[in-house]
UniProtKB/TrEMBL annotation:
Keywords: Amino-acid biosynthesis, Branched-chain amino acid biosynthesis, Cytoplasm, Leucine biosynthesis, Manganese, Metal-binding, Transferase. This is 2-isopropylmalate synthase. One of its GO terms (biological process) is L-leucine biosynthetic process. One of its GO terms (cellular component) is cytoplasm. It catalyses: 3-methyl-2-oxobutanoate + acetyl-CoA + H2O = (2S)-2-isopropylmalate + CoA + H(+). The keyword NAD does not apply. Residues 5-267 form the Pyruvate carboxyltransferase domain. Its cofactor is Mn(2+). Its EC number is 2.3.3.13. It is an enzyme of class 2 (transferase). Belongs to the alpha-IPM synthase/homocitrate synthase family. LeuA type 1 subfamily. The gene is leuA. GO terms for molecular function: 2-isopropylmalate synthase activity; acetyl-CoA C-acetyltransferase activity; manganese ion binding. Mn(2+) binds at residues 14, 202, 204, 238.
């Protein structure tokens, strides 16, 4: 039996902190609707105290979304928490997400507070949030650079004050997978009443380890993953939803967890985000890039034509893409060219196929990518010899 991992999408909040990814209110609402169709359990709609615009957008999303929980982020300060509640209170399932930093460097230089003061602020913040709703998430910002025993204390305090989700973020993408998993396990094992809360992680990608760290935390007992579409977010971004979800789905026997994500909605959602923020999806991007299901080498193409499982660990259809792309080029073999010509509707004999094969090879030396239109032109010119 697989355990459920809740998907908390923060594209509309942390994702929007990605340079150049600012969205208008209408765009946010459109994306929120798409996130709901995708099946996210919780969406973080924004940071209501940050600006009037953010407040309005969060309120609109809260009024629009019907099934997913809608979270608003707030610092551990009374006015932030009140503003957050004002923005989300119309939601069918509202959540207040309050946070305070717990690492020595953040407490000393950013907050200028002692650990005892931070504990007091965390307790007061969670209590205030819990006076509005029973659905309260508490985050220990920069958890991965915090003292583990202090994390245990903050966790106990937050649970006692009413938090039902405890999030331990790798705010600066500093953690390593094994170490991060150990930290999560340590807090779950040592914090009193840890069974009363769902443990969550929120990993940044500064060392390219956001998804690996999230997976390691899941193995250690975390049951909520904070992610963004295409991994957009502050600096190098956050753990990418599509990577995390497809890793747990493709290797379900290994992780033994499942999510509620309708994976066929992944590609349409990534495309919508890309259009909204005006940033194209890079060709080599995992799962959603143009090359993710494209096969160029003759050996791979031949294998794929015999059995897709030779070089595909998931199908393009399972993530909402049309089909595998057999890219014809100088590495392609006869089999791939035969497959492409019949896909285009031509039935060529061996001689004709040899002619097309040689023409494609010749063209591939001059042109980076051979398109279907090129193949058709070759067939018409070399096989049917259409005169000018
Ligand atoms: O990266 C981080 O620590 C955050 C928190 C506010 C959850 O975004
Ligand atoms: Zn973050």
């Amino acid at each position: 039996m697989s355990d459920r991992v809740y998907i908390f999408d923060t594209t509309l909040r942390d994702g929007e902190q990605s340079p150049g990814a600012t969205m208008s209110e209408n765009e946010k609402v459109r994306l929120a609707r798409e996130l709901e169709k995708l099946g996210v359990d919780i969406m973080e709609a924004g940071f209501p105290a940050a600006s009037q615009g953010d407040f309005e957008a969060v309120r609109k999303i809260a009024q629009t979304v019907k099934h997913a929980q809608v979270a608003g982020l707030c610092r551990s300060m009374p006015q932030d928490i009140d503003r957050c509640w004002d923005a989300i209170k119309d939601a069918a399932h509202p959540r207040i997400h309050t946070f305070i930093a717990t690492s020595p460097v953040h407490m000393k230089y950013k907050l200028r507070k002692s650990p005892e003061q931070v504990l007091e602020m965390a307790e007061a913040a969670v209590k205030r949030a819990a006076s509005y709703t029973p659905n309260v998430e508490f985050s220990a910002e920069d958890a991965s650079r915090s003292d583990w025993d202090f994390l245990v204390k903050v966790t106990e305090t937050a649970i006692e004050a009413g938090a039902t989700t405890i999030n331990l973020p790798d705010t600066v993408g500093y953690a390593q997978p094994q170490e991060f998993g150990d930290m999560i396990r340590y807090v779950i094992e040592h914090a009193k009443n840890s069974h009363k809360a769902i443990f969550s992680v929120h990993c940044h990608n500064d060392l390219g380890l956001a998804v690996a760290n999230t997976l390691s935390a899941i193995q250690a007992g975390a049951r909520q993953a904070e992610v963004t579409i295409s991994g957009i977010g502050e600096r190098a971004g956050n753990a990418a939803l599509e990577e995390l979800v497809m890793a747990t789905k493709t290797r379900n026997g290994y992780y033994q967890v499942e999510t509620n994500i309708k994976t066929e909605r992944i590609y349409p959602t990534c495309r919508l985000l890309s259009m909204i923020i005006g940033q194209p999806i890079p060709a080599n991007k995992v799962i959603v890039g143009a090359n993710a299901f494209a096969h160029e080498s003759g050996i791979h193409q031949d294998g794929m034509l015999k059995n897709r499982e030779t070089y595909e660990i998931m199908t393009p259809e399972s993530v909402g893409r049309e089909k595998t792309d057999i890219v014809l080029g100088k590495h392609s073999g006869r089999n791939a060219i035969k497959g492409k010509t019949s896909e285009l509707g031509y039935s060529l004999d061996d001689d004709a196929l040899q002619t097309v094969f040689e023409a494609v090879k010749g063209l591939a030396d001059k042109k980076e990518r051979i398109y279907d239109a090129d193949i058709e032109a070759i067939i018409l010119e070399e096989v049917y010899r259409i005169p000018d």
